[in-house]
Amino acid sequence: MSLFQGPSFLSSIRVTALAASLALFSGVSGFPLFERYVTATPVIKADFADPSILLYNQKWYAFATGAYGAHVQFATSDSFLSGWHVNQGYDALPNLPAWVRPDNPTGSFVWAPDVVKRASPSRICKAITKDGAAVSDGTSPKGPYRAQSNEPLACNEEAGGSIDPAGFKDKDGQNYVVYKVDGNSKGNGGVCNNSKPPIKSTPIKLQKLRSNLITPDGDPKTILDRDDNDGPLVEAPSINYKNGLYYLFFSSNCYSTPQYDVSFATAQNVWGPYTKAHAPDAPLLVTSKELSAPGGADVSIEGTYMAFHGNIGNRARGMYVATIKEVGGKVTV
Questions:
Q1: Would you say the pTM of this structure is higher than 0.90?
Q2: What 3 state SS string does the chain have?
Q3: Residue 99 neighbours by CB distance under 10 Å
Q4: pLDDT of residue 281
Q5: Residue 311: Cβ within 10 Å count
Q6: What CA–CA distance (Å, rounded) separates 81 from 315?
Q7: The pLDDT of residue 225 is above 90
Q8: Could you tell me the CA-to-CA distances from 275 to 45, 239, 324 in Å, in that order?
Q9: In this structure, are residues 300 and 2 in contact, taking their beta carbons and an 8 Å threshold?
Q10: Which residue, 100, 88, 97, 111, is CA-closest to 21?
Q11: Residue from 286, 266, 269, 287 nearest 277 by CA
């Protein structure tokens, strides 16, 4: 998920139980009705999971979970719905922050990246990991980004770590970061390590930021959590504001199962309370004959476009895209 603010760029990273990753902001509110349409063909037919999208100078940029030797993957397109080109061999974050654990058993790839632009003469990239969050800078959307802090922005290590960060700029100019506390990593086994009682909480947290987009302003607040309808978790949050409502998009169930999906909740205030949408209005994206385990969605700032991943075989998740329209209280994907 991406946030456009001014002449500088901000991106976030997540490092899971010892792996690295990028991501930033999105949201939800109210009780609008949703109609869904999903295209069946991925625009990136390679492993490009948890995409984050950014429009800059009439060009689209996408960042994704690390693969093929890159910590953070990078792709571009001139027309969002087609023509995506992955910069093979390019790493948007070639050097990981010092606080990334060197003993990571799952490798040092970055997960769920997100890049935002802010009003500042310097470019800044923010990173949240399962060990916490860091800040990096870049001179263009492409980067390369470099760590700017020896300390994480957010960290909930005892509860499972802070992951899946996404940035959000509210209508009054206030900036926030929303992220997941990875409680299922501390679970008792089963699907995504959290289907055997007692089930762990996987809260979505909202953190207000100071004007530098680096320093927390006050304490984070839980704005959403899993319930029995969500399976073992909720994750991959993204906030948007449109026509008086905050839309919080998220995935539920387990990414490695056909039950993984994209859903949403709504609120009239950025701090909530958020109300989850239910059938027939949600989930928005589910497994079908053409699509397998959709998730990790990011929505453009103006709420027109969505990017997400789906399984394409051989344990790879390709990038899909869709247009989003809001008409008379309904959102069409």
A1: no
A2: CCCECCCEEEEEEECCCCCCCECCCCCECCCCEEECCCCCCCCECCCCCCCEEEEECCEEEEEEEEECCEEEEEEEECCCCCCCEECCCCCCCCCCCCCCCCCCCCCCCCEEEEEEEECCCCCCEEEEECCEEEEEECCCCCCCCEECCCCCCCCCHHHCCEEEEEEEECCCCCEEEEEEECHHHHCCECHHHECCCCCCCCCEEEEEECCCCCCECCCCEEEECCCHHHCCCEEEEEEEEECCEEEEEEEECCCCCCCCEEEEEEECCCCCCCEECCCCCCCCECCCCCCCCCEEEEECCCCCEEEEEEEEECCEEEEEEEECEEECCEEEC
A3: 18
A4: 85
A5: 22
A6: 24
A7: yes
A8: 35, 14, 20
A9: yes
A10: 111
A11: 266
CA separation for the pair 20, 303 (Å, rounded): 28
Percentage above 70 pLDDT, the chain: 76
Q: Using an 8 Å Cβ cutoff, are 24 and 299 in contact?
A: no
Q: Which two tokens stand for residue 87?
A: 């910069």
pLDDT tens figures, 153-209: 788 888 998 888 898 999 999 999 999 999 999 999 999 999 999 999 999 999 999
Adjacency order of strands within the sheet including 132-137: 125-129, 132-137, 146-147
Average pLDDT on 312-317 reads: 94
Q: Which two tokens stand for residue 169?
A: 């700029």
The average pLDDT across 40-53 equals 93
- Can you tell me the distance from the alpha carbon of 43 to that of 62, in angstroms, rounded to the nearest whole number? 12
pLDDT of residue 96: 83
Tell me the torsion sign for CA atoms 79, 85, 91, 96.
positive
Q: How far apart are CA 232 and CA 121, in angstroms?
A: 43
Question: Beta partners for 248?
Answer: 265
β-strand pairing of 330-332 with 33-35: parallel
